[in-house]
Protein 1
Amino acid sequence: MGGAGHDGGAAAAAEAAGDGMLGAVGRTIVVGGAGGTAGREVCAALTAAGAHVVAVTSRADTLEEIAAAETHALDLGDASAVASLATDLRERRGGIDGFIHLVGGWRPGVADDDWQWLEHRVLTTLRVTSRELRDDLGASDAGRLAIVSSASVAAPRWGMANYVALKAAAETWVAAIANGWRVTKKPAAAVTFVVRTLDDDGVIDALAQSVVALWDLPADELNGVVARLDDAE
């Protein structure tokens, strides 16, 4: 898997999937933002790989379009709703092996209203859900957490300051989770995938393949990685 301090790109993770080191089969994986284009493709790829996908979206009208073992319409920024879902999964599934955060949105500028709109989607949903699931992922023999960030974090501009600041905060939050697992020697990994835009040709497919491959590589090779999913410099 490519990224900071690593050679190659996201394709390396997909190539490693043939090794069968761990595998996604039977894993309970929560996918947030499952109703979007990227969410649907990631859910489909994980389902095809044999995972028990728990697809979560705030848009109830998109549930029927998602290939998953179960679907839920709820706001991942609602701590009570997230706690209820997690408790239910623990009781029914015995544990939770993954959380893929694909909740997002885009608004330019620096206005307060846009900040509040973005903050809930980009950061609050990540904070609330990862706090609830962190111990579950750490207890799994292959817990995995992943987010999608933006290449604009490395080259911020005033016209998108709200968005870039929140994406940077999300990356820092994931890095803190990764460091915690590293210190406590958990067999879990937190990964950030970076894209210029999900609209570029092949990027969503690369994301889906790379997410599936998270369960085919050991945690010590993945934890804390920031991986670029396109070829742009």
Protein 2
Amino acid sequence: MTKNTIDVYKIGSQVKLTNDVYGVITGISIRGDHHVTYECGWWNGRSYDAKWFHPSEFEVTLIEKNKIGFA
């Protein structure tokens, strides 16, 4: 049996979403052929927002990755 692995950013990693919006990774979704999206949460004034992002839509400011495997 072949085991595949992918690197994913660790939940809790800090991210830069826009020039002045910073948040943290709060969830990870892996679908199909290793298609990874990340839920990121951030404070907007007094309210908390969260949205799913493709890795190309944010910059990780504290790079920590976990390796996960699939059988």
Protein 3
Amino acid sequence: MTRVVEEVAAQYGDRLIWEKIVTKEMAGAKRYQAFSKSLGRPAPVPSIVIEGQLEFDATPSSEALKACLDRYLREA
């Protein structure tokens, strides 16, 4: 999934800030736990969360991710 995000994110330059959360690290585990609590269930791994919303629970195509990001950027 990271490869798809890296590929698509590069097309947006500084208009997009993204972060990979590693759940094996304490900070990542805490974020995962907090997000799971907000969902009311364990968050899927891997997943893509945009502006606090679970958008993808499986690796999307580059086109699907780009369309989703374009929608968010238009609304921002």
Protein 4
Amino acid sequence: MTDVVSSKLDEKEIEELNEISEIEGLDRSSLIRKFLLAQIQEYRLKESGERYRNGLVSMAEAAILAKVSIYKMMDYVDREKIQAPSLTDSEMEEDLKRSKKIFDEIK
């Protein structure tokens, strides 16, 4: 099921959308949808990246939360220069167990 969502834009914004629409070879509605979906994905990456930075989730868990592959999550973390806090050996072991459980659940 799809719903219609409307938004008010000023004349300059509409002109820009029309220009980009021509370049991309998409109608304006498709272009707006493409932009919106890209921003939703970026938002999910940012949110899960922050959880990873704060040590709340592992890289694998962050990828699952962001609904992307672990490789895409790794690229994002690298691009944004995100570093997780250092973990002790026991914390790493617990992290691995938790990640394995998550992967087993999604199989």
